[in-house]
């Protein structure tokens, strides 16, 4: 049997009053939160609580399919976590991993489990994702009003207590932006322009390795799967340099290598409201 559940997080202000939730159906869901947290904390905690709740209910041997709208969570769990763990929960640049206690708890909860993650577009009408989002937002709103959040019926197991609430949280968006950058290199996004569309700013521009200036439509047209281009996963997961230009502006720089040669890349991401989108990308070939 495969258990299919959506997991989502919410933060009012990001950081601010925060909530998380996982949802299987109207009779099987759970939610919670913190007085002060981030979207990423909520997304991670939702997955963690889902893992722990299914284990407590005696369902740990069943395959679990987690629907998630956060590339940050999916990439953290499926791509970056093993490397972070080997380096003492630090990135390659030596900086500590954000949300490390949640990451460590997830690492332990995933041990011996059959878990698959599937990315879904947020706020696009997906019934399970929408249900999880509504419950996570309700939990965050309850904490904002200093009320007890609606916790849901759960799965009938004991309430997991592995990660304490915290009011000392900082998330500047760098992990989320890094995850979105990596998503633009993934075959799943490059093969489906509906997925890529939500990552791109309406006024996106790109300068290619030949010096050609592309607008948003041309960038979308240029996106095709890069089969066999696995090196970029390591680049985006570890070697990327992040600069916080302003509270709502982040610059990413990194190097890619492939059949076409070595390329210096820079991406400028901006946040408008709660959404980070790519505003400009430049690719400069390394002359060898």
TrEMBL record:
Protein residues bound to Mg(2+) 2: 8, 133
Cofactor binding notes: Binds 1 Mg(2+) ion per subunit. May bind a second metal ion at a regulatory site, or after substrate binding.
Domain RNase H type-1: 1-141
Region: Disordered, residue numbers: 137-176
GO biological process, one term: DNA replication, removal of RNA primer
PROSITE patterns hit by this protein: RNASE_H_1
Thylakoid as UniProt keyword: no
Compositional bias of kind Low complexity: 137-149
Membrane-crossing residue ranges in chain numbering: none
InterPro entries the UniProt entry points to: DUF4440, NTF2-like_dom_sf, RNase_H, RNaseH-like_sf, RNaseH_domain, RNaseH_sf, RNaseHI
EC number in record: 3.1.26.4
UniProt subcellular location: Cytoplasm
Binding positions (Mg(2+) 1): 8, 43, 69
Keywords: Cytoplasm, Endonuclease, Hydrolase, Magnesium, Metal-binding, Nuclease
Catalytic activity: Endonucleolytic cleavage to 5'-phosphomonoester
Chief location bin: cytoplasm
Keyword Metal-binding: yes
GO terms under cellular component: cytoplasm
Cofactor(s) this protein requires: Mg(2+)
Superkingdom in the source lineage: Bacteria
PANTHER family, per the entry: RIBONUCLEASE H1
HAMAP family according to UniProt: RNase_H
UniProt family annotation: Belongs to the RNase H family.
Its job: Endonuclease that specifically degrades the RNA of RNA-DNA hybrids.
Oligomer and partners: Monomer.
Name this polypeptide is given: Ribonuclease H
Organism: Corynebacterium terpenotabidum Y-11
Protein encoded by which gene: rnhA
